Amino acid sequence: MFSSSSRAAIRRVHSAVAASISPPFTTTSARFASFLIHGDAIDRSAHQLSAFVDEVLAESGAEKVDVLGHSLGTLVAAYWIRFLEGAAKVDRNVSLAPLWHGTDLIKGGGLVRDAQYAVCPACSEMHPDSDFIDRLHTAGPFVDSVAYTNILTERDTHTRR
């Protein structure tokens, strides 16, 4: 499925991830595979991403991946890179509308909020005051061996600056 290269590219679009192999970020001979995030706890999604990347690297023969994450995907990639030894497998990480400071997308409280969090554990972890965001801030979202690009616009209304 994949051609051989020294680096693969993982492309995440909102809650889906696709891998493109050799040469990265070009339209010629790029191939894609997908990885979906369904609102599971971020650490669970990060473990699933780790297994997915291992499969992509094994199938492609690449040594590293480039990651493009959006929204929740930026936190899943950051957790994998920082806490699950993903840094050794990543060359570049590009984040669109990154949630480094969390999001208060879920409004309200009480039973309504609790019901939303029960269906979407990641939603509670994305809250600005969550233990997850605190842990990420304490450790730092970036690893020195990975090149980062963060893209955020004034129209990204659910990201906190």
Automatic annotation (TrEMBL):
InterPro entries: AB_hydrolase_fold, DUF1023. It comes from Rhodococcus zopfii. Residues 37-80 form the DUF1023 domain. It holds the Pfam family Abhydrolase_8. This is DUF1023 domain-containing protein.
